Structures are given as structure tokens and as C-alpha cells.
Amino acid sequence: MSSSPPPASPLTRIQWLIVSVAALGFAFDIYELLMMPLIARPALAELLGQPDESTEVRNWIKYIFWASALSGGFFGLIGGYLTDLLGRRRVLTFSILLYAFSALAAGFATSPMMLLVFRCTTFIGVCVEFVAAVAWLAELFPNPRQREKVLGYTQAFSSVGGLLVTGAYLLCNEPSFRNAIPAIFGEHSAWRYTLISGVIPALPLLVIRPFLPESPVWQKKSAEGTLKRPSFAALFQPAFLRTTVVTTLLFACGYGAAFGAIQLVPQIVPGLLPAESAALNKARAEHKKNVEAGTAAKETPESVKEKRGAIEKKVGNVQLWQEVGGLVGRSLLAVLALWIVNRRWLLRVFQIPGLLLIPFVFFFPGRNQMGENSLMWLQFGMFFAGLFTVAQFSFWGNYLPLVYPAHLRGTGEGFSANVGGRMIGTSMNFVTLTIAPYMIGPDLGAGLVHPHKIAVAAGCVVLGVYLVGSILTFFLPDPKYADTHE
């Protein structure tokens, strides 16, 4: 291992461009991923013609969340291997092409299955892009302190993507804006416009990123013939076994908290708005009755859209608090990573408070146990839930490049992030929605599940994954490769 890393030097124009494009790429990744929690309920209710609380809507949400994550995890794992085999830049370019096309196509979905397919391909592109981008950036900046800054602050822009998609969703729910855009299949549906907006940030990436330099580390080793062939089996050799297992499980815990609880908040908020939810369901039922009687057109009437929009604005506001918290958390991680040398303690700064606070948020304000102030307390709680959970995702971008050598860097990152995070961690969404009907809470009957039950299930899941994650930090290995050229 190198004992004297190269000194930091001022960033050149091309390095500033690289950093800017990487930040935009991370922002777009999260922009795409956080769309589905916002649009899932209204999109599937419209496509299925069912109430928001129906079993059919809930089941399709489970299928889409988990199937897209499994697809992304599997192909992201392969993408990590290809990143080591073919180079960082080439894989980055193809991943952007894939999810730019998918983002556009999803907005024209005519069935739940079509929406599922294009969300799967979107997730695949995002999962591959993340692994390749982290390896690329880590190898472009060999000075440890400079590398920590670049990885920390560019990943902080992921939360900017969350703010942007929340803002886009709120804007698309404004009647004046929504009705000014051409109708799609005869409807002005906010969820369609939100999905289509995902192609906009991809355009500059598609233009610029193919012309940026390849990782000098990968390129040099490839040209010299010293680049070893990547291997999944190598991750389970004695030298890397503990690292692979522990990071995979910790990744699963982080994604379990996000998908099993935090991303379900848009389904919980309507439970704190009983009057608005009842008015929406009544208007939908009346419209359905009129359509069956032949006295109304099938298109959704403006009265239903307005009632839906009033709820979605409040859902978006809660999401906004969460995304601001995530941005603060990622920024805090970027600063603390420069001062807290021990990686275990750096992770515990976010794990321990999250363990104590986040379950409380779901068990109390999430279940409307704070009276008329429940929505306000849920907003505050989601700020801290975003802070403590989202910061951990930036932690892995800083940590993983230092625990694997160059020929295994993409493969190792891909395994932990995709098998642990996307395959195992995201399954907590399926778990939460599956156990929700059996939790304590109001019983709506007729196969409907009250949002309070989802809140209880989410609280149980987030408590479990945070507890396991806090214990696993004791087994987290110290980084082995302070020099990313190794």
C-alpha cells in the first residue's frame, strides 16, 4: 500500500467539468428513484380504476417497487462487473441512455404491467450508473482528502434531485400548469408529466459524459496488461469475505429503512387527512356510478382532480421536508468524513440517533396520535428520518472504493449495493405492505387497508433494520486501500 499519497492540487477545468457532471448524474439518479413513491398511488389508482386504499392498488405498488429493485440489483451487479472489465466511462454512457428512454416511456404507460416494465429498466440504468460513477470519481482524485470532498459533495447533490422531483410533482399538480400541457390519452394526469420530466436532466449528461476522460487508473492498468480480471468469487476469498458480508448487510439495512418505511410516507399522509380522503373517495364513487349509468364520460372530472391535487400537495410538502433532511444529512456526512477518521464511528453518528427517533415518527405522528398537529410533527420527523438515513448512502460512496483493489472495485461495490441494497433491502417495502393489514388500526373492510396500519408496519420494519444495522457497525472492517491506484 502507498505510504505517501499524492498531494492535492487545484482542480483543472476538465476536473471541474467532471465534478459538475457527476453531481448532475447523482441528482438525476435520485430524481428517478424517488418518483415512484410520489406517483405510485395516484398512477395505479387511475390505471386500475380503484380507490387508493384498495388491495389491488397496494399489491401493484408492492410488485412494482420490488420487481424494479430486483431488476436493478441483478443488472446492477452485472454492471459493476462490466465496469471493471470494460471501463468506467463506457458503462456510464450506456446506463444514461437506458434510463433516459425508460423515463420518457413510463409516462405513456397504459397499464400497470407497462408501468412496471419501464420502471424496471429505469432502475437498471440508475443502479449501473451509481457503481460506475463512484469508481470513476474515486480513481480520478487519488489524494485522500480531496477524494473525500469530491465524493461527499457530489453525492450530496443526490438530495438535490429529491428536492427537484418533489418540486416537479407539486408543479404538475397545479391545475393551471397541468391543464396548459397537452393531454396524454385524453387526460391531464400529474403523475404522467412527472414521469416524463425525468428525461430533462438526462439530456446534458448524454451530450457531455461520453467525451469525458476514462479513469486513469483503469486505463493505465488495462494498457499495461496488469489489470486483473474481475471475479465474483474473489469477493468471498478470506481477504475480502468479512468486508463483502458486512457491507452487503449494512447496505440492506439502509435500503430497508428507506424502502420499508420512508418511501411509504406518501401512502401514510392521506390517513392524516380524513376529510380530504373521504371527499376524494366520494367524488370518485359518484363519477364511477355516473359512467356506469351512461350519464358521464370516462375521463376523470375536474372535481376529482382538484380533490386529488389537494391531497398530493400535502404529500409533496412532507416529501419536501424529507428531501431537505436528506440534503442536510449528505452535506453533514461530507464534512464529518474529513474529521472522523474511524469509519465505524462515522456511521454510528447517523445510525444511533436514527434508531432512537425514526420508529417514534411512524408510531406516533404517522398514526395521527399527536392530534391536529400530527401532520406538522410528521414533517419534522421526516426531516430527521431523511437526514439520518440518506446520509448513510453517501457514506458507502466514500467507503467502498477504499476496501477493494482497482480490479475488484466496481464488482465489490456492485455486489454490496445491488445484492444488499437493491435486492435484499428493498424487499422491506414488500414486507411492510404485506404485514400492514395485520397491524393495529382502523378497519376499512372490503379489502381496504387504512394508512395508519401502514404506519405501524413501517415503524416495526424501520426499528428492526436500524437495530440490526447498529449492531453490524461493530464488525465493519477498516479501509485497506488508502490509495485508489492499488
What does this structure look like?
- The protein contains 19 helices and no strands.
- It is mainly α and 486 residues long.
- α1 (13-33) packs across α6.
- The mean pLDDT is 86.
- It has a single domain, classed as MFS general substrate transporter like domains (Growth Hormone, Chain: A, Up-down Bundle).
CATH superfamily: MFS general substrate transporter like domains
Number of strands: 0
Helix content: over 70%
Q: Tell me the count of domains.
A: 1
Mean pLDDT: 86
Q: What is the end-to-end distance? A: 7 Å
- The chain-level structural class is mainly alpha
How many H/I helices?
19
Largest sheet: none
The CATH architecture: Up-down Bundle
Topology (SSEs and partners):
Layout lengths: L12 H21 L1 H14 L6 H32 L1 H19 L5 H29 L3 H29 L2 H4 L11 H7 L5 H7 L7 H9 L16 H20 L4 H4 L5 H20 L8 H35 L6 H21 L10 H26 L9 H17 L1 H9 L15 H22 L14
Give a nutshell description of this structure.
With 486 residues, the protein is mainly α.
Keywords:
0% strand, Growth Hormone, Chain: A, globular, single chain, 486 residues, mainly alpha
